Amino acid sequence: QYLDPEEMDAVIAHEIGHIKRKHLHFYLVFFIGYIFLSYAIFDLLIYFIIYADPVYRLISSVGINQDTMISAIFSLFIIIIFFIYFRYIFGYFMRNFERQADTYVYALFPSAKPLISTFKKIVTTTGQSPDRPNWHHFSIKERIEYLNLCEEDKTYIIRQDRKIKKSIAAYLVAIVIIGGIGYNLNYGETGRKLSNHFIEKILLREINKTPDNPYLYSNLGDLYYNINNYTETIKAYEKSIGLEPDNPHVLNNLAWLYAACDDKNLRNPERALHLALNAADLEESPHILDTLAESYYINGELEKAVSTELYALRIAKKERSYYENQLKKFMAAINSGQ
User: What tens digit of pLDDT does each residue of 28-52 get?
Assistant: First the structure.
């Protein structure tokens, strides 16, 4: 009831501009972009929170449960990232999409004066300040000023369109780069190294707190073994066995390392057999019996290697082809007279 027909047409033209310029499609892209951003940085946040010494000093000083504090800090980081992304990045595009929709009036009408008068009526009827800032719209004063510029020089319409195209292109490039970083951090070699580094630091810090915990040394040995740091693997496993001699997992892994390590300088056949026998006494699993058979083999006890591997093959339910190949290797050694 406050708007003239020309003003109503101008408002409708503004809304048509949103449709024609496919702004809603871009909004969907921005939400997907946030998923990419989250995918790329959330693991880094977890590593930072767990690893950062200042965080642990803060937890210790306030006396709050560690898990609760880490969860609270992680949630705070997520909220901050969410706020920055939608308030500033998403807000930037929303404001400029609104301005582009304003200038779309010129695609349907020769002048935007009806839209300008509509904005002025909004100020008059609502009583709101024309300078009032808004994160998703330019202020009414700014919108009127830009339309007045377009009235005087239509190239401002083209400038706005170009600005949005360049901004979208820059955003898409950034999202592709961020997505690539996220993929590399989660599935690539860089991510694997980074993850191993943080896990190592965490384990070493926990060992410093509880140096008599054999499971920490066991986990540290597993980590070093997976990254082929065999010297440190041996040190960690030996320490774990010193604290808990009856752990078949550690006994077996260290026995295998001494028996079949890629670095032959680290092999220790006698120690391997001793550890493998202890592991087999504690647990008769196929993989443990296979380690024992390998230990017999490198010590020249080929008959025992064959009989042990036969037993491992008999009780194995998975990867039977591996045990069969091991058995063929031991039989070939006997047949060749080694």
Answer: 999 999 998 888 887 777 767 666 6
**Domain residue limits, the chain:** 5-187, 247-338
Second-level CATH architecture of 247-338: Alpha Horseshoe (1.25)
Output the 3-class SS for the chain. Answer: CCCCHHHHHHHHHHHHHHHHCCHHHHHHHHHHHHHHHHHHHHHHHHHHHHHCHHHHHHHHHHCCCHHHHHHHHHHHHHHHHHHHHHHHHHHHHHHHHHHHHHHCHHHHCCCCHHHHHHHHHHHHHHCCCCCCCCCCCCCHHHHHHHHHHHHHCCHHHHHHHHHHHHHHHHHHHHHHHHHHHHHHHHHCHHHHHHHHHHHHHHHHHHHHHCCCCHHHHHHHHHHHHHCCCHHHHHHHHHHHHHHCCCCHHHHHHHHHHHHHCCCHHHCCHHHHHHHHHHHHHHCCCHHHHHHHHHHHHHCCCHHHHHHHHHHHHHHCCCCHHHHHHHHHHHHHHHHCCC
- Taking only the tens place, the pLDDT of each residue in 174-194 is 999 988 888 887 777 877 888
Q: Say what the pTM is.
A: 0.70
